[in-house]
Amino acid sequence: MIREYELKQVLRFFRCGDTVLEIGAGAGWQAHALSRHGLKVIAIDIPDSRYATHRIWPVLEYDGHVIPLANASIDAIFSSNVLEHIQDITGFQNEMLRVLKPGGIAVHILPSASWRLWTIIAFYINRFRQIPRPQQLKGWKKTNGAFSSFLRRAMFILPHGAHGSAIGELSLFRRKRWLRLFADSGWEQITSHPNGLFYSGYHLCGDALSLKMRQQLSVVLGSSCWIYVMHKPGCSI
To answer: What is the pTM of this model?
Structure first.
């Protein structure tokens, strides 16, 4: 439901017949959805993707560094919650610019600082729910290290992306930070706007929140993602 809503927002930036490269395609669900709108989609992902065994669309595996396409060979690039996981994020900007035609566009959906904040909160709420009951605790104490292991997992939250810590991502996921990175890499901005939905990690509310309710909550609690649209300098394709 959430991904469909986001895709509807980005479709207007593509033209029917465009060759679109999706980076980090996972199972290929979004690639398949884009193809139904008249786009020619090339999907790539790394071999050890956790979605590799659930693919519904042909996904080309690559090393995560060099895009296996020729220079200036595609019209557009799309990614959804992917760039924050790339270690050499600056170098990868150059690789995307290489395969994109002059004037071609890149559309990226990226988590916001708001998403990071509420996901940290959701993490601790989720861990609180998992606190063992007294009768369970007695059994855990008899198991060497089991309870101390639980405490370590309960207190330490891992980062979502490839850079910094979970707390550090409150700064890394800021809109200004992404815009600065894109500008420094040579992209020219077309637009950037929030996706207008509230959600967090750990599926705290599951399906209890409707799409309309998530839209309303985003006004107060912040949108969980921003959509960035840039183009490669040069003549229009």
So the answer is: 0.89
